[in-house]
């Protein structure tokens, strides 16, 4: 059983060349989406290793987890990059809000752990 609207070619739709073509193309695009997601996960792993190290150093030095000036510069740069790549700058900004928000939560946790270990 498949849910209504799922991307499958069944007995009812297999005679329709357009449906078959669409399903095949969607399958190929999904392969590309999966490869992109795998690359993004690898990059996110590298990014969070880097920001965790910054978090350790900030906690050691007694710096605050957040640096609003740095974030403003990052967002401006990312919005410009997005524009030149033909990507909606709001997506770049949303990405930054997501990763920097998590990085700051992790910085705060790292600082607490350093405090406890003292
Ligand atoms: O560059 C820093 O100071 C970081 O802590 C990293 C980072 C980021 O995720 O890029 C996270 C929090 C800061 O507010 C700014 C940037």
Structure classification: mainly alpha
By CATH's scheme, which homologous superfamily applies? Answer: Chorismate mutase
Q: How many E strands?
A: 0
CATH class: Mainly Alpha
Stretches where pLDDT is under 50 for at least 5 consecutive residues are none
Terminal Cα separation, in Å?
A: 59 Å
Keywords: Isomerase
Protein name: Chorismate mutase
InterPro entries: Chorismate_II_sf, Chorismate_mutase-related, CM_dom_sf, CM_II_prokaryot
Detail the topology: elements first, then pairings.
Elements: H1 17-61, H2 68-85, H3 89-117
Helix pairs in contact: 1-3, 2-3
Prephenic acid binds at residues 51, 54, 66-67, 70-71, 74, 99-100, 103-104, 107.
Description:
This is Chorismate mutase. This protein has 118 residues and is mainly α. It has a single domain (17-117), classed as Chorismate mutase (Chorismate Mutase Domain, subunit A, Up-down Bundle). It is built from three helices and no strands. The longest helix has 45 residues, at 17-61. 3% of the residues are buried. The mean pLDDT is 93. Bound molecules: prephenic acid. Prephenic acid is lined by residues 51, 54, 66-67, 70-71, 74, 99-100, 103-104, 107. Prephenic acid binds at residues 51, 54, 66-67, 70-71, 74, 99-100, 103-104, 107.
């Amino acid at each position: 059983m498949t849910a209504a609207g799922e991307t499958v070619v069944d007995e009812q739709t297999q005679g329709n060349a357009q449906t078959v073509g669409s399903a095949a193309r969607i399958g190929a695009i999904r392969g590309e989406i999966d490869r992109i997601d795998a690359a993004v996960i690898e990059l996110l792993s590298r990014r969070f290793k880097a920001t965790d190290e910054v978090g350790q150093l900030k906690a050691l030095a007694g710096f605050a987890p957040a640096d609003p000036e740095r974030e403003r510069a990052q967002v401006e740069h990312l919005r410009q990059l997005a524009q030149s790549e033909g990507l909606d700058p709001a997506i770049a900004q949303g990405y930054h809000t997501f990763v920097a928000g998590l990085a700051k939560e992790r910085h705060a946790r790292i600082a607490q752990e350093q405090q406890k270990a003292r």
